[in-house]
Amino acid sequence: QLQLVESGGGLVQLGGSLRLSCTASGFTLGAYAIGWFRQAPGKERKGVSCITNDGRTNYVDSVKGRFTISRDNAKNTAYLEMNNLKPEDTAAYYCAARRRFGDVCYYSGMDYWGKGTLVTVSS
User: Fold this and answer.
1) Which residues does 116 contact at the CB level (< 8 Å), separation at least 6?
2) DSSP assignment, residue 102?
3) Per residue in 27-78, pLDDT tens?
4) How far lies 32's CA from each of 23, 28, 112, in Å?
5) Is the pLDDT of residue 1 over 90?
6) Parallel, antiparallel, or unpaired: how do β-strands 117-122 and 10-13 relate?
7) Rounded Cα gap, residues 32 and 53, in angstroms
8) Helix (H, G, I), strand (E, B), or coil: what is residue 63?
9) What confidence tier does 86 reach under pLDDT thresholds 50, 70, 90?
10) What angle do CA 101, 52, 94 make, to 5 degrees?
């Protein structure tokens, strides 16, 4: 079964940190671009960060300097390290993978999606 599974979400206080993981099964992530997305209650899902198959990264302005995306192809896993968390970071976080144009960072055309992990930041 081809799937992505996120983990690492939870409840954290203002200024805290979390590391999200995204593990693929049934396929090899190495050739894929990987994106992290989030959806806050009542809002649409939006891209947060992406990493190409050759390790180039992109971040939306609201998370620059606080979030770090990485990948470990040997573990078939991608990560999103989130520091200095704010209440506005509260959302369900999803990872997704795209094979086509895997060397380019953009937030559409994803082939596989995880089911999400919830991040709640309390003030």
Assistant:
1) 6, 39, 92, 93, 94
2) T
3) 999 999 999 999 999 999 999 999 999 999 999 999 999 999 999 999 999 9
4) 13, 8, 10
5) no
6) parallel
7) 5
8) helix
9) very high
10) 100
Mean pLDDT, residues 2-11 taken together: 97
- Tokens matching residue 58: 């992109």
Q: How far apart are CA 88 and CA 111, in angstroms?
A: 28
Q: Is the pLDDT of residue 101 over 90?
A: yes
Structure tokens at 82: 């989130």
Q: Beta-strand (E) ranges in the chain?
A: 3-7, 10-13, 18-25, 33-39, 46-51, 57-59, 67-72, 77-82, 91-98, 112-113, 117-122
